[in-house]
Amino acid sequence: MKHIYATVIILMLLPLFLSAEPWKLDSDVSFSFTQSAYSDSWAGTELSNITWLANSASSAEKQLKPWLQNKTTLKLAFGQTHLQKLDSMGDKHWAKPDKSTDKIDLESLFRFTTQAWVDPFVAGRMESQFIDQSDASLVRIINPILLTETAGVIRTFIENDADVFTSRIGAAFRENLNRDVMQSSGKRELVTTVDGGLEFVSEYKHSFAPRDANFKSRLQIYQALFNSKSKDLNDDWKSPDMVWENVLTAKLWGLLSATLSLEARYEKEAVHELQWKQLLGLGFSYSLL
User: Fold this and answer.
1) Dihedral of the alpha carbons of 86, 88, 94, 97, in degrees to the nearest 10
2) H helix or E strand, kind and range, residue 7
């Protein structure tokens, strides 16, 4: 299993080492922290808490050949919330931290620049999380892993100093790897689910000049056409999946920055309603490149 993970990562990062020519690199790292504390004599019912979030977004882009372009992106995020609680005796104690954010997202896209109205492309993507706590009896690292291979056509509709707007559509093949899953036999095994269908991705970026701020939006819609475990599932897997991510980042002063993110998600297999997550952070941000 470790060999599969290593092979996928190497193949997706391989473009970074194919040429000694300079790449167009972009990398932002941010960290935000909030804390509150109250004395034992505090008359209110408030309890102390600590929340922190580390986030990074990096990309490398290059025209490898006159007919071939590559863009590799890596998004990492992890955060926790520590809450103080009251026990049955009325004494305060710190509970175990809960995750507030957990993301690993690596994608490498090869675009065949044909100078036509649309260009062919192939892409590979790996999505996971640092800590999987879905099983109360076992904490698993980097699990589950969703691998997606896509091939189709892509077009850039807008590209200038302030705006970039690109859309692509293609056939997609996904493998969901969930390891150490407890079976009815009492043994833990790797469970692999394979499905395939159509994927649409649209990305937009706007830079606010002269202010050091930018807005990024990514809409992804996936329609499954087959599923390897369809006989064991209801028809929820046939419903389209949607993820819409929006991030607004602004440098306020020096390293001080503010980030507002809003993510909407619809996955009928998991929840029959629209899910959303909003994060507002004030902390330190640094551009490595």
Assistant:
1) -100
2) helix 2-13
Of all helices (H) and strands (E), which one includes residue 141? strand 140-141
CATH of the domain at 173: 2.40.230
Phi and psi of 231, rounded to 5°?
Answer: -70, -25
Structure tokens at 75: 């998004």
CA distance 148 to 172: 7
Helix (H, G, I), strand (E, B) or coil at 232: helix
> How many structural domains comprise the chain?
1
- Per the structure, the complete domain to which residue 212 belongs is given by 2-37+45-287
Q: What whole-number distance in Å separates Cα of residue 212 and Cα of residue 223?
A: 37
Q: What is the pLDDT of residues 147-204, one digit of tens each?
A: 999 999 999 999 999 999 999 999 999 999 999 998 888 899 999 999 999 999 999 9
How far, in Å, CA of 84 to CA of 42, rounded?
14
- Quote the distance between the C-alpha of residue 106 and its chain's center: 8
- Neighbour count for residue 147 (Cβ, 10 Å): 19
| Tokens representing residue 41 in the block | 């004599």
Residue 49 to residue 26: CA distance in whole angstroms: 34
